[in-house]
Amino acid sequence: MAKDVKATKTTVAKTNTVKKEEPILAAVVEEPAKKAPAKKAPAKKAPAKKAATAKETTSVIVQYQNNEVNVASVEERVKAQFISEGHTAASIKKVAIYVKPEEFAAYYVINEKFSGRVDLF
Asked: Looking at the whole model, is its pTM more than 0.85?
């Protein structure tokens, strides 16, 4: 470190100018004072929520000319018809249902491969 100080003095003497050197600030990291670990109180269990047992459901109902049908029941009929054709329920990956009330029918496509029709009402 002594060599650095002499080099600075030599530089100042040769240039005949005095440079004000800014002190280099070292980052000071203070560790928080360690506290004695507090004794933990016994954990209390939260009361069971009623919302977990009661699920919210949405029902979509199509009405047309004094007739109505729940879309969930149409989906069940589509899957039942697909299974009755010899397929397994586990093979169903994707279902698209097209409801056409003016034809009183719902058309479906399962797994982008199998298609069919079920009556709405």
From this structure: no
Where are the chain's structural domains? 61-119
CB distance 62 to 72 below 8 Å: no
Q: Mind spelling out the 3-state secondary structure of the chain?
A: CHHHHHHHHHHHHHHCCCCCCCCCCCCCCCCCCCCCCCCCCCCCCCCCCCCCCCCCCCCCEEEECCEEEEHHHHHHHHHHHHHHCCCCHHHCCCEEEEEEHHHCEEEEEECCCEEEEEECC
Instruction: Measure CA of the first residue to CA of the last residue in the chain; give whole Å.
Output: 95
- Residue 49 CA to its chain's centroid (Å): 22
Q: Tell me if 100 sits within 8 A of 121, measured CB to CB.
A: no
In this predicted model, what pLDDT tens digit does every residue of 92-104 receive, in sequence order? 999 999 999 999 9
The sheet with strand 95-100 has its strands ordered as 95-100, 105-110, 114-119
Lowest-pLDDT choice from 46-60, 69-83, 95-109: 46-60
